[in-house]
Specification:
Layout lengths: L13 E2 L2 E2 L8 H13 L1
Length: 41
């Protein structure tokens, strides 16, 4: 495990020159609720 502190990925953050994204595998009601909660953050 790394001893480096974790930094938040804020909107517009670049990771290795690419925009940071979140991926959701699957779908259904739980995936939809997770995506809606992430949008509110």
């Amino acid at each position: 495990m790394s001893s480096l502190p974790l930094k938040p990925l804020l909107p517009g953050t670049l990771v290795q020159g690419q925009p940071a994204t979140l991926g959701v595998m699957g779908g259904g009601q739980l995936g939809r609720m997770w995506a809606q909660a992430a949008q509110r953050m």
